[in-house]
Amino acid sequence: MAPSEIHSLSQTPITAHSFNADRSQVAVSLNSNDVQIFARQGQEWKPTDVLSEHDKLITSIDWAPNTNRIVTSSQDRNAYVWQQTQDPQTGATIWKPTLVLLRINRAATFVRWSPNEDKFAVASGARAIAICSFDPEGDWWVSRLLKKPIRSTVLSLDWHPNNVLLAAGSADMKARVLSAYIKDVDKRPAPTVWGEKLPFNTICGEYTSPTGGWVHAVGFSPSGDVLAFASHDSSITLVYPGQQALYTIKMTSLPLLTLTWTTENSIVAAGHDCQPLVFQGSESGWELSGSLDDPSSNKSAGGARSGFGGAAPVGRLQSAAFNTFRNADSRGLGSATSGAGSGESELFTVHQNTITSVRPYAGAPGNVAQVSTSGVDGKLVIWDTTAVTPATGLGGIAGRLAAMQLK
Amino acid sequence: MDNFRKIDIDQYDEDVLLESELYEPDPRDPAQVLDDVKQKVTAVRSSLAKGDITGALDLVLDNAPYGPNVDEAKNINLQTLLSILNSTKATEIPGVVKALSTDAQDTLMKYLYKGMAMPGWGDVSGSVLLGWHEKLTEAAGTGCIVRAMTDRRLV
């Protein structure tokens, strides 16, 4: 199915994106040290503000919907909280940064506000997660570090709806559920399937990726009772701690980098295959049900397929590069003459490169009607979660994914 | 000069991540692993005699030896696997790889790459391995290759 909106924001990769509460503005980082805010004007996005304070690449952005604060993390080992205030001299509305003392000695890789927006978590390469809460006396954000038992860079985080538990996916090939309980901020949490007593740094679960891939993405289900994580071994795993059940889907396509739950029984996940896939299931089992993209309907967009031979396409073996070399070999064509214009390297998917972020766009948690994706191709795309192109069995999607890469 | 580059700085790090912590070790004893592998050789031979290639592959790929201290078992298993690969007709390969379980497909992919990394060793034939690789990728997709690369449980 076609996505409902496609916006090409830049020629550079979009490292992170986050919308404000009414979706009239979006904060993105265009692979630089600055955050660019765009405001919607009809079908267009107009650049409005630039938030520059970081002095290295920004890795993650999160815009709190209710308190209207933006938090950013960067490779410069810092995080900033940005708040809209009146400039005392000009009277204009500006975004004022507040530095957060993270106390980490490696890059900050990922940041997310907690559901109540009274604290946020910053993942880092220092084998630690900083849990930051506001100290009104000192008028600053203080951090406490979750360290044990993380053995490597933390790549992704997700908050449990109870504002206390935190899921973390890490390059030590494990997904963990930890307690980020802060005495001054949180009320005593009600018991969950993950545990009853939850002091700071309690480890409620530790799950290894099935065949040793970095855990790129983690996500709690809307109820918080199920954990999903996607890892670099092209698999996605669902954890049901109550039933002690674990479901792994080994995919035939390339690894996923990001995921979001749309209902209690469905997930949208995307990554190196450049299209958002839909997984559905329940405590009795999960499966890949289809894709929000439909590469086979976008054929015309890709221009004419190269039509050499009738051999079955095999993964990337039939890629543009492969054909270039084959032409050079069998027909004596140089690379300059074999190119058929810009269409040559175009994919049949909407996104033309890896999708690095998928986030809920419209609908309440547990009933998300639309999701937004951004990626290395500089596109921001909004998809209807109901418009699923079904996978006709695993073999079907394998065939289609292979065809998608064919060129 | 530049000798300092050869210093193993990890030994000064108390928190260093060790190779052994990267994957679950094989619960079996190395001697037991070797025993299992040797038993498979005859079982595989009788399967092959009956023309049951899928059955023979399943035997070899199930519980394949991995990790340290089992080099002999690894060599024997590779040898057994190569004997199956070399004796299969090209037209039969697609059906055989499709019949394998996902786990067996992943393990087979690991062996194919291992074989390609040691040309000239034993019965390794590049063209046979590439033929299997093509058909296996058609059946199991690029995900199978990715898993062969990420898995630290080297066969």
Question: Mind explaining what this structure looks like?
Answer:
The complex is a heterodimer of chains A (407) and B (155). With 407 residues, chain A is mainly β. Chain A has a single domain (5-303, 353-393), classed as YVTN repeat-like/Quinoprotein amine dehydrogenase (Methylamine Dehydrogenase, Chain H, 7 Propeller), CATH 2.130.10. In chain A, 7% of the residues lie in helices and 45% in strands. Chain A is built from three helices and 29 strands. Mean pLDDT of chain A is 87; it is low at 300-316, 337-343 and 393-407. The longest helix of chain B is centred in the C-terminal third of the chain and has 25 residues, at 126-150. Chain B has a single domain, classed as Actin-related protein 2/3 complex subunit 5 (Serine Threonine Protein Phosphatase 5, Tetratricopeptide repeat). Chain B is mainly α and 155 residues long. Chain B has helices at 30-49, 53-61, 71-86, 93-99, 102-116, 126-150. Chain B is built from six helices and no strands. Chain B is globular, with a radius of gyration of 18 Å. Chain A binds chain B through residues 127, 151-152, 172-173, 208, 211-213, 232-235, 250-255, 312, 314-317, 398, 401-402, 405, and chain B through 15, 17, 21-24, 102, 106, 134, 137-147, 150-153. Chain B: Its main location: cytoplasm.
